[in-house]
C-alpha cells in the first residue's frame, strides 16, 4: 500500500520490514534504520511541494526524507512510536496523517506546526486519505467506514451510506 512518485518521477516503495526503496534511473536505493529511519516497516508515503518524502512507519511514527537524508519527525509526543497508516498533503499545504488506532491529525507548516486531532471520524484506524477535485478530504477507516471533511465539517454524504461500518483500505479521486 505504500507507493509514492516524487516530483522527479522516481517511485518510492515501502516494504513490510526492509525499509524504503527508491527506484532511480539505472539503480535501486534502499533506506533503512541504518540510514536514519525510525522503523523499517513502512505503511504510508506521500510527498510535499518542497520535494520532501514523508514516511509513515509501523510503530516508529513519522519520518521524512530530503536532501539531508532520513530522519524521524515527531511534531508531538502523541505520535511517538505510533503506527502511521496514511498520509496526505492537501493543495493548500496542510499535512494530514492517519494512525492505526488514534484517529487522524492535521498539521500546519509541512508537519512542523501544531498538531490538531480530527473530530467526528467514524473510526480510529485511518487507512486512507484523499483530497478530491473539490478540495474535500476523504477518510477511510478500517473500523467505521468512510467520511468526508468538507471545509471544517465532517460529513457522511448519502452516496456512501452503504459503506458505513465497512472497512475502507484505500480511496482515490477520479
What is this structure's SSE topology?
Blueprint: E1 3-5, E2 11-14, E3 20-24, E4 27-31, E5 42-47, E6 53-57, E7 62-66, E8 69-72, E9 84-89, E10 95-99, E11 104-107, E12 115-117, E13 126-131, E14 137-141, E15 145-150, E16 153-155
Antiparallel strand pairs: 1-2, 2-3, 3-4, 5-6, 6-7, 7-8, 9-10, 10-11, 11-12, 13-14, 14-15, 15-16
Strand content: 35-45%
- Counting DSSP E segments of at least 2 residues, the number of strands comes to 16
Q: Rg, please?
A: 16 Å
Helical content (DSSP H or I, runs of 4+): under 10%
What gap, in angstroms, lies between the N and C termini? 18 Å
Helix count from the secondary structure assignment: 0
Structural class label: mainly beta
Major β-sheet strand ordering: 1-2-3-4
* Most strands sheet: 4 strands, antiparallel
What is the element string, with H for helices and E for strands? EEEEEEEEEEEEEEEE
Name the average pLDDT: 88
Unreliable residue stretches? none
Categorize the overall geometry.
globular
